[in-house]
Design a protein that fits this description.
This protein is an all-alpha fold. It contains one helix and no strands. The chain is rod-shaped, with a radius of gyration of 41 Å. The model has no long low-confidence stretch (mean pLDDT 88).
Length: 115
């Protein structure tokens, strides 16, 4: 049985166009899309840095007001404690042997202690 072989001199050349675009166009498109993505990413990172800086500066500028509010609250508590102490003991008492103001320390203890 004879085997099928190509004709003598080979097949005639075929002129078929390649499917799709040339690889260079695909690379160019990929780099354009990646470049746009990096541009948006870097822009977003800069925006986040700016928002963080703004947040930090707003906190820095709010510290004196918050400290003054805390000081007023401590003075109010101090005078209320002095009045309560005078009601209970009938006289003003000093905890320290000095007229210098000492910032009171408050500790919070849990009400329910589980064992």
């Amino acid at each position: 049985m004879a085997q099928d072989l190509p004709p003598q001199g080979g097949y005639e050349p075929r002129n078929l166009p390649a499917r799709g675009f040339r690889p260079g166009y695909y690379l160019l498109g990929m780099f354009a899309i990646m470049g746009y993505g990096w541009y948006k990413y870097i822009k977003g990172v800069r925006e986040l840095n700016e928002l963080g800086r703004e947040k930090m500066w707003s906190r820095i500028h709010l510290i004196p007001m918050l400290q003054a509010e805390n000081d007023r609250d401590q003075v109010r508590r101090y005078w209320a404690d002095q009045d309560r102490e005078q009601e209970l003991m009938g006289k003003k008492t000093k905890v320290y042997h000095s007229d210098r103001f000492v910032r009171p320390t408050y500790s919070i203890s849990p009400t329910n202690i589980s064992k």
